[in-house]
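Name: Fe2OG dioxygenase domain-containing protein
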Amino acid sequence: MPSMRRRIRQLFLHSNNKTQKPNTKITESEAQDPTVYIPSHNTDVNAGTTTAASSTSTLSETGAPELPVVDYKDISQIPGLLTKYPAIYLINHGLPPAPFNHARTLLTLPKATKDTLRDPGKSTVRGYNNAKASGREWWDYNPAEKMLGPPENEEFEKDTTKFFNQSIKLLQSVCQQFNHHNQLIPQDVIEEVGFSTMRYLRYSPDVIDQQPQNPDSQSTYNSVLNSHRADDNGEAIPHIEAHTDLDILTLITATEPSGLYVWNRRGEVFSAPPVHGTVLIMAGDLMPFFTSKPGMSPLEQHEGFEAIGEDTVLPTAHTVAVPRSAGERYSIAVFLRPRRDLVVDKRVVKRGEKEIEEETAFWWLATEKLHVEGRKCFLA
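Structure predicted for Fe2OG dioxygenase domain-containing protein:
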C-alpha cells in the first residue's frame, strides 16, 4: 500500500519539523518535586539523595545527564514526563543486576560457536546476528521459542530469563500508569508477554569489517566512512543508524562508554549516558497510536497530523556512536511488544461509496516499517 507508506513518512517528517509547546527544560513545578531530579553523572542514585537540579540543553559541562530521574514509587509521573522528554531514568526499580557478564561471554565466543547460535529461519530478533559494517553484534532472547544460547550454561539461561521477566513486569507497570484515568493501552499488553524480546548488544572496533564485501557495496561503504560515523582518520566507528524501536516501551541499561543519544520532537539532542543504579526507559512506535487524541488515528490521511497532540507520546528517536578509542560498549535492551495480531489502530476509510472501519494489527505495522525511506523511524 504505497499511499500508506507515504503517509507514514510524511508524519515522520512533519513531526520533526513542527514546533511543539513542550520544552526540554524542567518545569518550575518539577524542580520543586524532590522525586524528579537530575543527578551528577558520577552520582550513585541509590544513595537516597533527592536534591533537584536545573536541566541544561544537552549534556552539561559538569557531565550531569539532563533527562529526568524518577523513583519507582513515583512511576505515575512517567506518562507526563514522556510527553516532554525523549526518555527517563528509573531509580529503585528492583531489577536484578544486569547480566553484562553473560553478554560479554556470549558475544566474545569464537565465530564458529556464535554461528551455531543463529536462527535457522534467519530471524533478526532471535539468536545471534551481526552488522560488521557498523561494528556491532547482538543476540536476542525470544521467550516463545527455545533459547539459542551458549551450550551447557545453565546460569546463562537462568539469569537471562530472570532479568527479562522482571523487566517486562516493570514495563507493564509503567503501561498501567497510562490507564489510571483512561484505557489507553490494551489490557492484554499489561497481562501478557506478547512478542516481547531481550537483546544483548556489543559495539566494538574489533567487529568492524574494514573492507567492502563486494564492489557493489563500495559507494555505501564510502558514505559510511565519510559520515559522522567515521573518526578523524576516516575509519569507521561502531554505531547504529538513527531509529525508533518497534515496540511500546524499551528498557535499556549499558556500560561505559555511553555513545547513546536521544532527541525530542523539536530535534533537540540529549546524551543518555549510563547512570549507576538506573535503567533508561524510552517510548516505542506504538505509543502514538495509544496516546493520540481521542477518536483520532495518526494514520488518517487528512487528520493524521492533528491526531498528534501535546499529550501524545512520540517514539524516541535514538542513535549510538562509540569512538574507536573508547573501547567496546555493551548494552542490554528489553522490548515490550504486544502479540502479533493485536489491533493497534482503527480508522474510518472510504471504499468506493462506503465508509468502513479499518483495523491495523501490530504485524502489519511492523511490515510497513520495513518500507519507510530514510531513517527507520515512525512519527519521531
